[in-house]
Amino acid sequence: MPHSLPEDFIRQMSGQLGDELEPFLASYEGLRAYGLRLQPQKVQPGSPLWEQLAAMFGLEPVPWCPTGYYYREETRPGKHPFHAAGLYYLQEPSAMSSAELLAPAKGETVLDLAAAPGGKSTQLSAMIGPDGLLVSNEIHPARAQILAENIERMGAANTIVVQSPPDRLAERFPRFFDKIMLDAPCSGEGMFRKDKAAREEWSPAHVEMCAARQLDIFRHALAMLKKGGTIAYSTCTFNRKENEELVSAVLREYPALTLLRTERLWPHKVRGEGHFVAVLRLVGEETEEPQSRKSGKAGRPDKPGPLSAQTAEAWRLFREFAETAFTRKELLPPGEPLLFGEQLYWLPSGREGRFRSALLAGLKSPRPGLHLASIRKKRVEPAHALALAMPTAAFRRTVSFPASSPELAAYLRGEVLPAPSDLPDGWVPVCADCQPLGWAKCAAGQLKNHYPKGLRSR
Ligand code: SAM
Description:
The chain is an alpha+beta fold. About 30% of the residues lie in helices and about 25% in strands.
Protein backbone atom coordinates (compact mmCIF):
# COMPACT_ATOMS: atom_id res chain seq x y z
CA MET A 1 0.00 0.00 0.00
CA PRO A 2 1.47 3.41 -0.89
CA HIS A 3 0.52 4.76 2.55
CA SER A 4 2.83 2.35 4.29
CA LEU A 5 5.75 3.17 2.01
CA PRO A 6 8.63 5.05 3.68
CA GLU A 7 8.20 8.81 3.26
CA ASP A 8 11.80 9.25 2.20
CA PHE A 9 11.23 6.65 -0.47
CA ILE A 10 8.20 8.50 -1.84
CA ARG A 11 10.24 11.73 -1.84
CA GLN A 12 13.10 10.01 -3.66
CA MET A 13 10.79 8.56 -6.31
CA SER A 14 8.96 11.85 -6.72
CA GLY A 15 12.29 13.54 -7.57
CA GLN A 16 13.10 10.74 -9.98
CA LEU A 17 9.76 10.18 -11.68
CA GLY A 18 7.97 13.57 -11.62
CA ASP A 19 4.55 13.14 -13.25
CA GLU A 20 4.92 9.38 -13.28
CA LEU A 21 4.95 9.17 -9.48
CA GLU A 22 1.18 8.57 -9.20
CA PRO A 23 0.98 5.61 -11.62
CA PHE A 24 4.19 4.23 -10.05
CA LEU A 25 2.73 4.37 -6.51
CA ALA A 26 -0.59 3.02 -7.76
CA SER A 27 1.24 -0.04 -9.10
CA TYR A 28 1.89 -1.08 -5.47
CA GLU A 29 -1.87 -1.56 -5.13
CA GLY A 30 -2.21 -3.53 -8.35
CA LEU A 31 -2.23 -7.30 -8.66
CA ARG A 32 1.09 -9.09 -8.66
CA ALA A 33 2.21 -10.82 -11.84
CA TYR A 34 3.32 -14.44 -11.32
CA GLY A 35 5.93 -16.00 -13.56
CA LEU A 36 7.63 -19.26 -14.33
CA ARG A 37 10.42 -20.15 -16.69
CA LEU A 38 10.39 -23.46 -18.52
CA GLN A 39 13.49 -25.62 -18.50
CA PRO A 40 14.07 -25.89 -22.27
CA GLN A 41 16.03 -29.13 -21.92
CA LYS A 42 12.91 -30.76 -20.44
CA VAL A 43 10.04 -28.93 -22.17
CA GLN A 44 10.27 -27.97 -25.84
CA PRO A 45 7.91 -25.18 -26.91
CA GLY A 46 4.96 -26.55 -28.89
CA SER A 47 5.48 -30.13 -27.61
CA PRO A 48 2.50 -32.01 -26.10
CA LEU A 49 4.06 -31.48 -22.66
CA TRP A 50 4.31 -27.74 -23.30
CA GLU A 51 0.64 -27.71 -24.42
CA GLN A 52 -0.29 -29.56 -21.22
CA LEU A 53 1.54 -27.03 -19.02
CA ALA A 54 0.14 -24.06 -20.94
CA ALA A 55 -3.41 -25.33 -20.46
CA MET A 56 -2.94 -26.31 -16.78
CA PHE A 57 -1.38 -23.04 -15.64
CA GLY A 58 -2.92 -20.60 -18.15
CA LEU A 59 0.53 -19.65 -19.48
CA GLU A 60 1.02 -16.37 -21.36
CA PRO A 61 4.42 -15.35 -22.76
CA VAL A 62 6.65 -12.89 -20.92
CA PRO A 63 7.67 -10.53 -23.77
CA TRP A 64 11.36 -10.22 -22.81
CA CYS A 65 12.10 -13.90 -22.14
CA PRO A 66 11.41 -16.68 -24.68
CA THR A 67 11.21 -19.35 -21.96
CA GLY A 68 9.25 -17.15 -19.51
CA TYR A 69 5.50 -17.21 -18.93
CA TYR A 70 2.93 -15.60 -16.69
CA TYR A 71 0.76 -18.11 -14.89
CA ARG A 72 -2.55 -17.79 -13.10
CA GLU A 73 -1.88 -17.62 -9.36
CA GLU A 74 -4.71 -20.00 -8.41
CA THR A 75 -3.19 -22.83 -10.52
CA ARG A 76 -0.30 -23.15 -7.96
CA PRO A 77 2.40 -24.65 -10.24
CA GLY A 78 4.80 -24.77 -7.27
CA LYS A 79 2.63 -27.53 -5.75
CA HIS A 80 2.54 -29.69 -8.88
CA PRO A 81 4.85 -32.73 -9.17
CA PHE A 82 6.22 -31.18 -12.39
CA HIS A 83 7.83 -28.52 -10.17
CA ALA A 84 9.66 -31.26 -8.26
CA ALA A 85 10.65 -32.74 -11.64
CA GLY A 86 12.35 -29.46 -12.56
CA LEU A 87 10.20 -28.67 -15.58
CA TYR A 88 10.05 -25.01 -14.56
CA TYR A 89 11.37 -22.48 -12.08
CA LEU A 90 9.06 -19.94 -10.45
CA GLN A 91 10.57 -16.54 -11.09
CA GLU A 92 9.39 -12.97 -10.87
CA PRO A 93 8.88 -11.98 -14.54
CA SER A 94 11.00 -8.81 -14.62
CA ALA A 95 13.90 -10.72 -13.04
CA MET A 96 14.01 -12.84 -16.21
CA SER A 97 15.35 -9.85 -18.16
CA SER A 98 18.95 -9.81 -16.83
CA ALA A 99 20.08 -13.19 -18.18
CA GLU A 100 18.39 -12.45 -21.53
CA LEU A 101 20.34 -9.20 -21.80
CA LEU A 102 23.61 -10.85 -20.81
CA ALA A 103 22.80 -13.41 -23.55
CA PRO A 104 25.57 -15.98 -23.04
CA ALA A 105 26.20 -18.16 -26.08
CA LYS A 106 26.24 -21.95 -26.12
CA GLY A 107 29.49 -23.30 -24.71
CA GLU A 108 30.55 -20.13 -22.87
CA THR A 109 32.09 -20.01 -19.40
CA VAL A 110 29.85 -17.95 -17.12
CA LEU A 111 29.92 -16.77 -13.50
CA ASP A 112 26.82 -15.90 -11.50
CA LEU A 113 28.42 -14.08 -8.58
CA ALA A 114 25.42 -13.50 -6.28
CA ALA A 115 23.27 -16.42 -7.25
CA ALA A 116 20.86 -17.68 -4.56
CA PRO A 117 18.15 -18.84 -4.78
CA GLY A 118 19.06 -19.54 -8.40
CA GLY A 119 16.61 -17.85 -10.77
CA LYS A 120 19.29 -16.41 -12.98
CA SER A 121 21.67 -19.35 -12.58
CA THR A 122 19.11 -21.90 -13.77
CA GLN A 123 18.31 -19.61 -16.70
CA LEU A 124 21.99 -19.10 -17.62
CA SER A 125 22.80 -22.79 -17.28
CA ALA A 126 20.08 -23.64 -19.82
CA MET A 127 21.27 -20.89 -22.17
CA ILE A 128 24.91 -22.07 -22.35
CA GLY A 129 23.91 -25.72 -22.94
CA PRO A 130 25.81 -28.87 -21.98
CA ASP A 131 29.18 -27.69 -23.35
CA GLY A 132 29.06 -24.46 -21.37
CA LEU A 133 30.21 -24.05 -17.79
CA LEU A 134 28.47 -22.07 -15.08
CA VAL A 135 30.06 -21.25 -11.74
CA SER A 136 27.23 -20.25 -9.48
CA ASN A 137 28.31 -18.52 -6.28
CA GLU A 138 26.46 -17.53 -3.13
CA ILE A 139 28.16 -16.02 -0.09
CA HIS A 140 25.64 -17.13 2.58
CA PRO A 141 25.87 -20.82 3.55
CA ALA A 142 22.14 -21.48 4.02
CA ARG A 143 21.27 -19.70 0.79
CA ALA A 144 24.04 -21.59 -1.03
CA GLN A 145 22.32 -24.85 0.02
CA ILE A 146 19.01 -23.68 -1.42
CA LEU A 147 20.83 -22.63 -4.57
CA ALA A 148 22.39 -26.10 -4.88
CA GLU A 149 18.97 -27.73 -4.44
CA ASN A 150 17.42 -25.58 -7.15
CA ILE A 151 20.31 -26.26 -9.55
CA GLU A 152 19.83 -29.96 -8.84
CA ARG A 153 16.04 -29.83 -9.33
CA MET A 154 16.42 -28.16 -12.71
CA GLY A 155 18.86 -30.89 -13.78
CA ALA A 156 21.83 -28.65 -14.59
CA ALA A 157 24.84 -30.87 -15.28
CA ASN A 158 27.06 -27.99 -16.42
CA THR A 159 26.99 -26.06 -13.13
CA ILE A 160 29.32 -25.89 -10.13
CA VAL A 161 27.96 -24.24 -6.97
CA VAL A 162 30.50 -22.50 -4.75
CA GLN A 163 30.08 -20.54 -1.54
CA SER A 164 32.65 -17.79 -1.38
CA PRO A 165 33.09 -14.08 -0.74
CA PRO A 166 33.69 -12.32 -4.08
CA ASP A 167 37.28 -11.27 -3.21
CA ARG A 168 38.38 -14.88 -2.65
CA LEU A 169 36.78 -15.93 -5.90
CA ALA A 170 38.53 -13.09 -7.72
CA GLU A 171 41.91 -14.34 -6.49
CA ARG A 172 41.14 -17.81 -7.80
CA PHE A 173 39.63 -16.91 -11.19
CA PRO A 174 41.44 -13.90 -12.67
CA ARG A 175 40.16 -13.11 -16.22
CA PHE A 176 38.45 -16.48 -16.36
CA PHE A 177 34.89 -15.88 -17.50
CA ASP A 178 33.36 -14.94 -20.87
CA LYS A 179 30.24 -13.59 -19.19
CA ILE A 180 29.44 -12.54 -15.63
CA MET A 181 26.08 -11.97 -13.99
CA LEU A 182 26.16 -9.65 -11.01
CA ASP A 183 22.64 -9.58 -9.63
CA ALA A 184 23.69 -7.49 -6.69
CA PRO A 185 22.32 -7.46 -3.14
CA CYS A 186 20.33 -4.21 -3.11
CA SER A 187 17.86 -2.16 -1.08
CA GLY A 188 15.00 -4.11 -2.72
CA GLU A 189 12.58 -1.32 -3.59
CA GLY A 190 11.08 -3.68 -6.17
CA MET A 191 10.26 -6.12 -3.36
CA PHE A 192 8.09 -3.70 -1.35
CA ARG A 193 4.84 -5.13 -2.70
CA LYS A 194 5.53 -8.72 -1.71
CA ASP A 195 7.99 -8.29 1.16
CA LYS A 196 7.09 -6.15 4.18
CA ALA A 197 10.57 -6.67 5.68
CA ALA A 198 12.18 -4.99 2.62
CA ARG A 199 9.98 -1.93 3.27
CA GLU A 200 10.90 -1.82 6.96
CA GLU A 201 14.61 -2.24 6.34
CA TRP A 202 14.73 0.56 3.75
CA SER A 203 16.26 3.96 4.56
CA PRO A 204 18.42 6.45 2.66
CA ALA A 205 21.39 5.23 4.73
CA HIS A 206 20.64 1.63 3.71
CA VAL A 207 20.68 2.71 0.05
CA GLU A 208 24.13 4.30 0.58
CA MET A 209 25.40 1.16 2.28
CA CYS A 210 24.10 -1.03 -0.56
CA ALA A 211 25.74 1.19 -3.19
CA ALA A 212 29.11 1.00 -1.42
CA ARG A 213 28.84 -2.80 -1.20
CA GLN A 214 27.79 -3.05 -4.85
CA LEU A 215 30.85 -1.08 -5.95
CA ASP A 216 33.09 -3.38 -3.94
CA ILE A 217 31.52 -6.54 -5.41
CA PHE A 218 31.59 -5.03 -8.92
CA ARG A 219 35.38 -4.52 -8.69
CA HIS A 220 35.90 -8.15 -7.75
CA ALA A 221 33.59 -9.26 -10.54
CA LEU A 222 35.58 -7.26 -13.10
CA ALA A 223 38.81 -8.93 -12.04
CA MET A 224 37.28 -12.23 -13.16
CA LEU A 225 36.03 -11.05 -16.56
CA LYS A 226 38.09 -11.91 -19.64
CA LYS A 227 39.07 -9.06 -21.91
CA GLY A 228 36.34 -8.81 -24.51
CA GLY A 229 33.93 -10.34 -22.00
CA THR A 230 30.55 -8.98 -20.92
CA ILE A 231 29.06 -8.34 -17.51
CA ALA A 232 25.42 -7.73 -16.63
CA TYR A 233 24.79 -5.75 -13.46
CA SER A 234 21.24 -5.92 -12.18
CA THR A 235 19.15 -4.94 -9.16
CA CYS A 236 15.51 -5.07 -8.14
CA THR A 237 15.65 -1.54 -6.78
CA PHE A 238 14.63 1.78 -8.35
CA ASN A 239 16.87 4.55 -6.96
CA ARG A 240 19.63 5.94 -9.16
CA LYS A 241 22.37 5.57 -6.55
CA GLU A 242 22.37 1.78 -6.82
CA ASN A 243 21.74 1.81 -10.56
CA GLU A 244 22.78 4.49 -13.08
CA GLU A 245 25.07 6.31 -10.62
CA LEU A 246 26.75 3.08 -9.58
CA VAL A 247 27.36 2.15 -13.22
CA SER A 248 28.76 5.66 -13.91
CA ALA A 249 31.15 5.30 -10.96
CA VAL A 250 32.37 1.97 -12.32
CA LEU A 251 32.81 3.42 -15.82
CA ARG A 252 34.87 6.30 -14.42
CA GLU A 253 37.11 3.88 -12.57
CA TYR A 254 37.58 1.45 -15.49
CA PRO A 255 38.27 3.21 -18.82
CA ALA A 256 38.48 -0.22 -20.50
CA LEU A 257 34.76 -0.75 -19.86
CA THR A 258 32.07 0.32 -22.31
CA LEU A 259 28.40 0.50 -21.54
CA LEU A 260 26.43 -1.52 -24.09
CA ARG A 261 22.94 -0.79 -22.77
CA THR A 262 20.82 -0.15 -19.72
CA GLU A 263 17.27 -1.29 -19.29
CA ARG A 264 14.66 -0.31 -16.72
CA LEU A 265 11.53 -2.35 -16.22
CA TRP A 266 9.05 -0.25 -14.24
CA PRO A 267 6.16 -1.86 -12.38
CA HIS A 268 3.70 0.73 -13.71
CA LYS A 269 4.75 0.03 -17.32
CA VAL A 270 5.17 -3.74 -17.50
CA ARG A 271 3.64 -6.79 -15.79
CA GLY A 272 6.35 -7.33 -13.18
CA GLU A 273 7.83 -5.94 -9.97
CA GLY A 274 10.54 -3.98 -11.80
CA HIS A 275 14.24 -4.42 -12.51
CA PHE A 276 17.35 -2.51 -13.57
CA VAL A 277 19.95 -4.07 -15.87
CA ALA A 278 23.17 -2.62 -17.29
CA VAL A 279 25.33 -4.56 -19.73
CA LEU A 280 29.01 -3.61 -20.02
CA ARG A 281 31.92 -4.95 -22.04
CA LEU A 282 35.58 -5.02 -21.10
CA VAL A 283 37.37 -3.96 -24.30
CA GLY A 284 40.49 -5.70 -25.56
CA GLU A 285 41.44 -9.27 -26.23
CA GLU A 286 43.11 -11.84 -24.05
CA THR A 287 46.71 -11.95 -25.25
CA GLU A 288 48.17 -14.34 -22.72
CA GLU A 289 47.05 -16.49 -19.87
CA PRO A 290 46.90 -14.57 -16.61
CA GLN A 291 49.91 -15.43 -14.45
CA SER A 292 47.94 -17.02 -11.66
CA ARG A 293 46.29 -19.42 -14.07
CA LYS A 294 49.65 -20.52 -15.48
CA SER A 295 51.44 -21.13 -12.22
CA GLY A 296 49.09 -20.31 -9.37
CA LYS A 297 48.81 -22.33 -6.20
CA ALA A 298 46.14 -24.46 -7.78
CA GLY A 299 48.63 -25.59 -10.43
CA ARG A 300 47.99 -25.58 -14.14
CA PRO A 301 44.29 -26.37 -14.37
CA ASP A 302 44.06 -27.29 -18.04
CA LYS A 303 46.20 -30.42 -17.64
CA PRO A 304 44.09 -33.13 -16.02
CA GLY A 305 46.06 -35.15 -13.52
CA PRO A 306 45.63 -38.92 -13.32
CA LEU A 307 42.66 -40.07 -11.24
CA SER A 308 43.52 -41.33 -7.77
CA ALA A 309 43.08 -45.08 -7.31
CA GLN A 310 39.88 -44.52 -5.24
CA THR A 311 38.38 -42.15 -7.80
CA ALA A 312 39.24 -44.46 -10.67
CA GLU A 313 37.60 -47.38 -8.84
CA ALA A 314 34.48 -45.36 -7.95
CA TRP A 315 34.25 -44.20 -11.55
CA ARG A 316 34.58 -47.76 -12.82
CA LEU A 317 31.77 -48.91 -10.51
CA PHE A 318 29.59 -46.02 -11.60
CA ARG A 319 30.14 -46.80 -15.27
CA GLU A 320 29.12 -50.40 -14.62
CA PHE A 321 25.93 -49.11 -13.03
CA ALA A 322 25.38 -46.64 -15.91
CA GLU A 323 25.57 -49.50 -18.44
CA THR A 324 22.61 -51.14 -16.75
CA ALA A 325 20.58 -47.96 -16.14
CA PHE A 326 21.09 -45.87 -19.28
CA THR A 327 20.67 -46.46 -22.98
CA ARG A 328 23.44 -44.09 -24.08
CA LYS A 329 27.08 -43.64 -23.14
CA GLU A 330 27.55 -39.94 -23.90
CA LEU A 331 25.34 -38.50 -21.21
CA LEU A 332 27.66 -36.18 -19.36
CA PRO A 333 29.15 -32.85 -20.46
CA PRO A 334 32.95 -32.49 -20.85
CA GLY A 335 34.46 -32.98 -17.38
CA GLU A 336 36.04 -35.39 -14.91
CA PRO A 337 34.88 -37.60 -12.03
CA LEU A 338 35.51 -36.24 -8.57
CA LEU A 339 35.30 -38.24 -5.35
CA PHE A 340 34.66 -36.73 -1.92
CA GLY A 341 34.59 -39.55 0.63
CA GLU A 342 31.79 -41.80 -0.63
CA GLN A 343 30.25 -39.16 -2.89
CA LEU A 344 31.03 -39.25 -6.59
CA TYR A 345 30.48 -36.08 -8.64
CA TRP A 346 30.97 -35.15 -12.26
CA LEU A 347 32.92 -31.89 -12.42
CA PRO A 348 32.12 -30.12 -15.68
CA SER A 349 35.24 -28.65 -17.29
CA GLY A 350 33.65 -26.49 -19.98
CA ARG A 351 34.20 -26.99 -23.66
CA GLU A 352 37.89 -26.03 -23.57
CA GLY A 353 38.53 -28.17 -20.51
CA ARG A 354 39.67 -25.20 -18.45
CA PHE A 355 37.91 -26.04 -15.23
CA ARG A 356 39.79 -28.69 -13.29
CA SER A 357 39.34 -29.97 -9.74
CA ALA A 358 42.50 -28.11 -8.63
CA LEU A 359 40.58 -24.87 -9.06
CA LEU A 360 38.20 -25.90 -6.27
CA ALA A 361 40.96 -26.58 -3.72
CA GLY A 362 40.23 -24.64 -0.54
CA LEU A 363 36.91 -23.29 -1.82
CA LYS A 364 33.62 -24.31 -0.24
CA SER A 365 31.51 -26.05 -2.83
CA PRO A 366 28.09 -27.38 -1.82
CA ARG A 367 27.79 -28.89 -5.30
CA PRO A 368 31.06 -29.53 -7.12
CA GLY A 369 29.24 -30.49 -10.31
CA LEU A 370 26.61 -33.14 -10.89
CA HIS A 371 26.20 -35.56 -8.00
CA LEU A 372 26.36 -39.00 -9.64
CA ALA A 373 26.22 -41.48 -6.81
CA SER A 374 27.20 -42.62 -3.34
CA ILE A 375 29.64 -45.51 -3.46
CA ARG A 376 29.51 -47.67 -0.33
CA LYS A 377 31.30 -50.97 0.00
CA LYS A 378 31.49 -51.24 -3.79
CA ARG A 379 27.74 -50.62 -4.07
CA VAL A 380 26.48 -47.77 -6.22
CA GLU A 381 23.51 -45.77 -4.98
CA PRO A 382 22.54 -43.32 -7.73
CA ALA A 383 22.15 -39.69 -6.62
CA HIS A 384 18.83 -37.85 -6.71
CA ALA A 385 20.49 -35.19 -8.91
CA LEU A 386 21.26 -37.82 -11.54
CA ALA A 387 17.57 -38.75 -11.95
CA LEU A 388 16.73 -35.10 -12.58
CA ALA A 389 19.64 -34.37 -14.93
CA MET A 390 18.89 -37.11 -17.47
CA PRO A 391 16.19 -37.03 -20.13
CA THR A 392 13.51 -39.72 -19.78
CA ALA A 393 14.66 -41.36 -23.03
CA ALA A 394 18.13 -41.94 -21.56
CA PHE A 395 16.87 -44.47 -18.98
CA ARG A 396 16.59 -48.14 -19.93
CA ARG A 397 13.45 -48.41 -17.83
CA THR A 398 11.26 -46.11 -15.78
CA VAL A 399 8.11 -46.45 -13.68
CA SER A 400 5.60 -43.75 -14.45
CA PHE A 401 2.41 -42.78 -12.66
CA PRO A 402 -0.08 -40.07 -13.67
CA ALA A 403 0.89 -36.78 -11.99
CA SER A 404 -2.44 -36.67 -10.13
CA SER A 405 -2.46 -40.34 -9.05
CA PRO A 406 -2.49 -41.52 -5.42
CA GLU A 407 0.61 -43.64 -6.20
CA LEU A 408 2.61 -40.58 -7.15
CA ALA A 409 1.45 -38.67 -4.07
CA ALA A 410 2.54 -41.69 -1.99
CA TYR A 411 5.95 -41.71 -3.69
CA LEU A 412 6.43 -38.02 -2.89
CA ARG A 413 5.54 -38.76 0.76
CA GLY A 414 8.33 -41.35 0.84
CA GLU A 415 6.12 -44.46 0.94
CA VAL A 416 6.91 -47.92 -0.44
CA LEU A 417 4.89 -48.79 -3.57
CA PRO A 418 3.99 -52.11 -5.20
CA ALA A 419 6.26 -52.73 -8.20
CA PRO A 420 4.87 -53.53 -11.65
CA SER A 421 5.10 -57.32 -12.10
CA ASP A 422 7.35 -57.14 -15.19
CA LEU A 423 9.93 -54.79 -13.59
CA PRO A 424 13.34 -56.39 -12.98
CA ASP A 425 15.01 -55.85 -9.61
CA GLY A 426 17.31 -52.84 -9.31
CA TRP A 427 17.30 -49.06 -9.48
CA VAL A 428 14.58 -47.31 -11.44
CA PRO A 429 13.50 -43.68 -11.72
CA VAL A 430 9.92 -42.93 -10.69
CA CYS A 431 8.20 -40.49 -13.04
CA ALA A 432 5.17 -38.20 -13.03
CA ASP A 433 3.63 -38.54 -16.50
CA CYS A 434 7.04 -39.77 -17.78
CA GLN A 435 9.04 -36.95 -16.10
CA PRO A 436 11.71 -38.35 -13.73
CA LEU A 437 11.27 -37.30 -10.08
CA GLY A 438 13.68 -39.51 -8.16
CA TRP A 439 14.81 -43.09 -7.59
CA ALA A 440 13.25 -46.24 -6.24
CA LYS A 441 14.81 -49.66 -5.85
CA CYS A 442 12.78 -52.59 -7.05
CA ALA A 443 13.10 -55.75 -4.95
CA ALA A 444 10.69 -58.55 -3.98
CA GLY A 445 7.76 -56.96 -5.82
CA GLN A 446 8.17 -53.62 -4.07
CA LEU A 447 9.52 -50.21 -4.98
CA LYS A 448 11.65 -49.10 -2.06
CA ASN A 449 11.44 -45.34 -1.87
CA HIS A 450 14.64 -43.29 -2.33
CA TYR A 451 13.03 -39.88 -2.73
CA PRO A 452 15.22 -37.61 -0.51
CA LYS A 453 13.81 -37.27 3.01
CA GLY A 454 14.20 -33.48 3.01
CA LEU A 455 12.03 -33.13 -0.09
CA ARG A 456 9.17 -35.44 0.94
CA SER A 457 5.70 -33.97 1.26
CA ARG A 458 3.90 -34.32 4.56
N1 SAM B 1 20.47 -13.84 -8.59
C1 SAM B 1 19.57 -14.41 -7.62
C2 SAM B 1 18.42 -15.03 -8.34
O1 SAM B 1 18.14 -14.68 -9.50
O2 SAM B 1 17.77 -15.94 -7.78
C3 SAM B 1 19.16 -13.36 -6.60
C4 SAM B 1 20.34 -12.75 -5.92
S1 SAM B 1 19.95 -11.62 -4.64
C5 SAM B 1 19.40 -10.24 -5.50
C6 SAM B 1 21.55 -11.12 -4.12
C7 SAM B 1 22.36 -12.19 -3.41
O3 SAM B 1 23.60 -11.60 -3.02
C8 SAM B 1 21.74 -12.74 -2.16
O4 SAM B 1 21.59 -14.14 -2.27
C9 SAM B 1 22.74 -12.41 -1.04
O5 SAM B 1 22.88 -13.42 -0.09
C10 SAM B 1 24.02 -12.21 -1.81
N2 SAM B 1 24.99 -11.31 -1.10
C11 SAM B 1 24.81 -10.59 0.00
N3 SAM B 1 25.93 -9.94 0.35
C12 SAM B 1 26.85 -10.27 -0.58
C13 SAM B 1 28.22 -9.93 -0.77
N4 SAM B 1 28.85 -9.11 0.05
N5 SAM B 1 28.84 -10.46 -1.82
C14 SAM B 1 28.20 -11.31 -2.67
N6 SAM B 1 26.92 -11.64 -2.54
C15 SAM B 1 26.25 -11.15 -1.51
